[in-house]
Amino acid sequence: MIGGGVQRLARRRWLWVAAAGGPLVVAIIAAVAAGGRAPAVGDDLRAGVASLLLLGGLAAALGLGGATLNRDADRGYLGLLAATGVGRPPIVVTTLAARLVALAALLAIWAVAAQVASTALGRGLDGPLIVHTLAMAELLALTLLAAAAASSVVGPAASAVAGAAVFVMAQAVANLKAAADDGVIGTAAGPVKALHAVFPRAVTSPMIADLQARDVAGAAAPQIEINRNLVTVPPAGAGTVLLTLAWFSVFALLAVAGFRRRTL
Fold it and tell me: Fewest CB atoms within 10 A around its CB: which of 111, 148, 195, 240?
């Protein structure tokens, strides 16, 4: 069933455009970086690819997640599967898995293009950029699953909004925790730390933390100023990675629960 879902997604023209467009954008980023000052070539490449992963990756995650269960249910495809005797939970799980595979494949294509560009610029394979790509992949997968959970009860547009809200919340939790640790948000530090202990968080890579601290991350991670104090988000630890992974299961369970009540 997962293979069938991936094959159906492979017919989506916009996914092929994204798969081809990502390497093209990376090539443009590399060309611009090559024309700059030698010490800044690496920073420019990393910042550009990080922006692609943020903006392009978010668009892909919302596009895939927002139409996970609603569109195929309305067209009768999922009802046909249910009529053959397949239970609703397996339908949801395999559909989610197919979407995650499609997102992973798209990000992998972009990641390979970024490493080719790094090698072409004489920098070799960029390990920190690989780590950042994996960190973004986790956050984007979380966003996809949040939108997919909403897609079990509402339409594609509303589901995409729900996924975007979770993405923003995860980023805000990480940013506010950093501000609380720096002591720049006063009495709000207590509630912020409580939220940080429970809610999913953005997985900040060491690469993006370094670029942000030096204010060269561009759109991917602009510097944060709270009460006229600069706040730099530190790299995420293992706890953040594991907690965010745990939320994958929460959203998958919500998708199953919502789909049980959906009319097919």
Answer: 195
Q: What is the mean pLDDT of residues 165-182?
A: 91
| DSSP label at residue 231 | E
> 211, 221 in Cβ contact below 8 A?
yes
Q: How far apart are CA 209 and CA 29, in angstroms?
A: 20
CA 175/CA 224 separation, integer angstroms: 8
**Which pTM does this prediction carry?**
0.92
Q: Do residues 236 and 243 touch, judged by C-beta distance below 8 A?
A: no
Q: With contact defined as beta carbons under 8 Å apart, do 233 and 212 qualify?
A: yes
Nearest-CA neighbor of 117 among 207, 211, 31? 31
Give the position of tokens 């759109």: 219
Give the angle 166-202-242 at the CA atoms, nearest 5°.
105
| 86 or 135, which is more confident | 135
- Residue 6 DSSP code: H
Q: Are 115 and 31 in contact (CB under 8 A)?
A: no
Q: Which pairs from 80-88 meet CB under 8 Å and 24+ separation? A: 81/1, 82/264, 86/1, 88/256, 88/259, 88/260
Higher pLDDT, 79 or 166: 166
- The per-residue pLDDT for range 178-206, each reduced to its tens digit, is 888 877 887 677 888 888 889 999 999 99
In the 8-state DSSP scheme, what is residue 68?
A: S
Q: How far apart are CA 173 and CA 197, in angstroms?
A: 9
**What is the spatial distance between Cα 48 and Cα 31, in angstroms, rounded to a whole number?**
11
Q: How far apart are CA 151 and CA 164, in angstroms?
A: 13
Structure tokens at 92: 């949801």
